[in-house]
Amino acid sequence: MKNWILLITFSCFGSINAQKKLDALTTPTSPASTILGMQPSAILQPKSYRALEAAVFSNFSDTDGNGIIPNNFGLEFMPYWANDHGISLEEYLYPKANLDQICRNSSFSLASTQKFPLQDSTLTKSLSLGYRTSLFFGNKKDKKILQGYISTLSNEQRIGSKIVSELESFRQKNTLKTKKEYLNAIREILIDRIAKVLQNNSRKDAEEITQNIYASVDKLPFDVNNIDPFFISFLDLIEDKMMGNYEEFKSYIQLRQGLSIDLAYALFLNFPDNNFKSSEIPRQSLWVTPSYKFSDKINFLMATAVLRYEWYNLKYFDNYFPDSKVAENNFDYGLAIATEFKKFSLGFEATGRESSSLVKAGMDALGNTLYLKSNTSDFQYIGTFSYRLTEQIALTYQIGSSFKPVFSTTETLISLLSLNFGFGGPNITDITSK
Prior knowledge:
The protein contains ten helices and twelve strands. By secondary structure, the protein is of the alpha+beta class. The chain has two domains: about 260 residues; about 100 residues, no CATH class. Strands 1-2-3-4-5-6-7-8-9-10-11-12 form a twelve-stranded antiparallel β-barrel. A hairpin with a 2-residue loop joins strand 10 and strand 11. Helix 5 packs across helix 6, helix 5 runs antiparallel to helix 8 and helix 6 packs antiparallel against helix 7. The longest helix is centred in the middle third of the chain and has 34 residues. The two termini are about 30 Å apart. The N terminus is likely disordered.
């Protein structure tokens, strides 16, 4: 019985900690979804640390104006965070080598649609593949702040583990009839144990922590014939109170000042005959996306820029979109400002585009085709609102005006709703096991 209770106790502690992610799910932007046209943004926002993210997209209606169920989806997978690597918190936040960052932050994305229309209205299947990684460049001030949090959290974890063994031993040696009797009996034990593991060995601090724990114990169930549920719930409550600095620490990680640079690539794959053996690559993209999070009084702001190069397969468009005017090379540049709060974020981005292509200008006297270079410009702007339903689910709405579409339609209005799900990723236990 004792081993069974201990197993449940430590499993319960592990499950609570596993829910405490080191970062919150962010606005979903992936290279694969962007190049397929599911997400109109040219700017890739920095990705949260999730082993797997899934997203569904809807623009609310089909070509006939009827409401539709989303049939477009995207996935993004970070292989490194699919397993627990047991790295230290400091190493997680500040890898010793850029190669380590590239490996840990590498993600692969996939997006798919079953109804991609060609110019003749034929519905075809399309998918896209993407890759990205990021590098973060912090500073001395940031490192000093993080070292303070690391020391505090390490101390709190030692408190929790020692309290578990102490209270389990006491519970097995004593039979108590009421919740009040049990709490009175362990109060001094709890205070002494907390005081011993606090760095300053302060009994006053230990008494304050114990008081906060006891203030929340009234709602816990207590059955003298089955005390196990109360005991496990009580230990969970202790852990929550002992990890009081965790939420503050996580908020700092989300808003920590510094520069990060995302590098990404994606390609668009279309099956015009709906045959897997016959495919075309209409376009490909490369991104360089630097982001900077500000500090002090404006630490809720993040600025993101983008340099994106796209190139199009003109033969594909000649065959399947003969009436479309497509530039072979496109260079996008833009800037986005975003504000991050506890549950939601707001953002606005503006992106310009310079396009160039060679167009036929006639024939020379020898029958050779002559070409002229054609240059055009375009512009798009998008507002984004994202609400985090939980740390693993985010709902995002985007509205604005897009670049002139290259695929059959002339609409430039953006009205897109997306739902993003996050799975796995590092939590407080994964990165403090050393």
